[in-house]
Structure formats: C-alpha cells, structure tokens
C-alpha cells in the first residue's frame, strides 16, 4: 500500500474538528475545483474527479475525537482507505493528519501519487482555513 499524508495543527479543540469531519456533507468544502457531481449524506459521499474516476465513499469507522475512516462503497479504480486522525495537543489545539492508503501498482503510483498528494494537502489547508 502506498500511503500519502498531510499533517497540520489547527487551533481548535479536537471535539469541534471531529464534529466537522464526521459529517460527509462537510467534506465537499474541502474538495478542490476538479471535483464535481457531489452528493452526500452524513455517512456517504459520491463524486467525480475530473478526468479520473467516480468515487463513492462511506464512513466505515468512527473513533470519537480520534479517527474517521472512509472506504469505497463501489469498486474504485484501485483499493483505497481514507483516514482523518486527530490528536489533542492541548485544550485549544489539535494535530490533524489526512491519510490516503492506496493499492497502486508501479504505473498507477507514478500517475496518481502527485494528484493524491495535492488532494490531501488541499484538504488539510482548506480544513484549517474553514475552522480558523
């Protein structure tokens, strides 16, 4: 598995960041412009990545104020797991990690690693911007 991650610190309590992330409806705000056809509920999101693929994700695991895991509902172009990991630094700041684990062959790794890294970096910076 190829693991792509982005780490940030947000000056908010872990509970408020978790509340935002646990609702898939909020994740649309974290997506770059090349994501369209977005539909979501609290637990699921379906969208299209321009020139790449359609994805349907469901939150498959919630560990309150610590971790959220989203996995594909339908078969994606490659197996992947998306995780948000939260760790309280103190009462008013939280370490946040966005992580994509993808089962990429060598060719797919060369093609997809860059865009996936841009995606996690974009999502963490948008999260910090929205919650600041």
Architecture overview:
Helix content is 26%, strand content 45%. It has helices at residues 14-21, 106-131, and strands at 2-10, 35-40, 44-49, 53-63, 67-72, 80-90, 93-102. The protein has a seven-stranded antiparallel β-sheet, covered by helices on one side. Strand 3 (44-49) and strand 4 form a beta hairpin. The chain is globular and about 45 Å long. The chain starts with a strand and ends with a helix. The relative contact order is 0.25. The model has no long low-confidence stretch (mean pLDDT 94). This is SRPBCC family protein.
CATH architecture: 2-Layer Sandwich
**Fraction of helical residues:** 25-40%
Radius of gyration: 14 Å
Number of strands: 7
Strand order of the largest sheet: 1-7-6-5-4-3-2
Q: What's the overall geometry?
A: globular
State the CATH class: Alpha Beta
The end-to-end distance, rounded to whole angstroms, is 33 Å
The average pLDDT is: 94
Sequence stretches where pLDDT stays below 50 over 5 or more residues? none
Number of domains: 1
Protein name: SRPBCC family protein
Organism: Pedobacter flavus
InterPro entries: START-like_dom_sf (IPR023393)
């Amino acid at each position: 598995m190829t693991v792509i991650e982005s780490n940030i610190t947000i000056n908010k309590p872990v509970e408020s960041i978790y509340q935002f992330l646990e609702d898939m409806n909020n994740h649309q705000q974290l997506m770059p412009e090349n994501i369209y056809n977005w539909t979501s509920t609290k637990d699921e999101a379906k969208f299209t990545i321009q020139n790449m693929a359609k994805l349907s994700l469901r939150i498959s695991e919630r560990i309150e104020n610590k971790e959220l895991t989203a996995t594909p509902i339908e078969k994606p172009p490659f197996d992947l797991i998306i995780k948000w990991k939260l760790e309280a630094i103190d009462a008013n700041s939280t370490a946040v990690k966005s992580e994509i684990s993808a089962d990429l062959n060598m060719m797919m790794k060369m093609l997809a690693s860059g865009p996936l890294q841009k995606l996690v970096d974009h999502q963490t910076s948008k999260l910090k911007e929205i919650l600041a």
